[in-house]
């Protein structure tokens, strides 16, 4: 066998834009099928608010959010009501640098007096505080950094952690 150089075909440059329309269509199909969703909120690498959505029937995928899509998703989780809530899924706005979207959503829910079930800190061995909110059509999971600041913030809301 002769020694040679191997060359790999170069892929075309990616357009760099996530297919949020496909993600939205998949979410709509899951909601129309009445699936119970597992949702985790986070900030993407390009500082966009996102939800990681999955169910027993569909593997997880990213869906970039804005106010109307967040409201539509929460409304489905609470009531099971299906609506075409995102007319333009590709138009998302980045958050400010260093923003933790999961923490923002958690604080919003605590301000509205939603009861979130947290894993007690003495049972946690990681650097995160975890919690969940079970709703009619799914569960929202939270995972925020375990910092003194975040612990104090949760205690300000009288959260038993």
Topology:
Layout: H1 20-32, E1 37-43, E2 49-54, E3 61-64, H2 67-79, H3 101-111, E4 117-118, E5 128-135, E6 138-145, H4 148-156
Protein described:
- It is a single chain.
- This protein has one domain.
- With 161 residues, the protein is of the alpha+beta class.
- The chain is built from four helices and six strands, in the order H-E-E-E-H-H-E-E-E-H.
- The chain is globular, with a radius of gyration of 19 Å.
- Strand 1 and strand 2 form a beta hairpin.
Provide a compact summary of the structure:
The chain is an alpha+beta fold and 161 residues long. It has one domain (20-156). The chain has four helices and six strands.
Mean pLDDT: 89
What percentage of amino acids are in beta strands? 15-25%
Work out the radius of gyration.
Answer: 19 Å
C-alpha end-to-end distance: 65 Å
Number of strands: 6
The unreliable regions are: none
- What is the spatial order of strands in the main beta sheet? 3-2-1-6-5-4
What is the helical fraction, as a range of percent? 25-40%
Task: Specify the overall morphology.
Answer: globular
H/I helix tally: 4
Q: Secondary-structure element order, as H and E?
A: HEEEHHEEEH
Main sheet specs: 6 strands, mixed
Sheet/helix structural class: alpha+beta
Number of domains: 1
Descriptive key words:
29% helix, 161 residues, 6 strands, alpha+beta
């Amino acid at each position: 066998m002769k020694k040679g150089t191997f060359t790999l075909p170069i892929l075309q440059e990616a357009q760099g834009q996530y297919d949020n329309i496909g993600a939205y269509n998949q979410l709509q199909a899951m909601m129309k099928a009445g699936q119970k969703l597992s949702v985790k909120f986070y900030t993407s690498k390009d500082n966009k608010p996102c939800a990681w959505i999955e169910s027993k029937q569909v593997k997880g995928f990213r869906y970039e959010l804005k106010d109307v899509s967040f409201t539509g998703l929460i409304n489905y989780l609470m009531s099971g009501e299906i609506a075409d809530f995102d007319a333009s899924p590709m138009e998302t706005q980045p958050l400010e640098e260093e923003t933790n979207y999961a923490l923002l959503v958690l604080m919003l829910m605590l301000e509205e007096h939603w009861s979130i079930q947290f894993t007690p800190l003495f049972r946690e061995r990681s650097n995160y505080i975890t919690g969940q909110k079970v709703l009619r059509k799914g569960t929202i999971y939270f995972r925020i950094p375990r910092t003194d600041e975040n612990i104090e913030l949760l205690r300000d809301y009288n959260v038993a952690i």
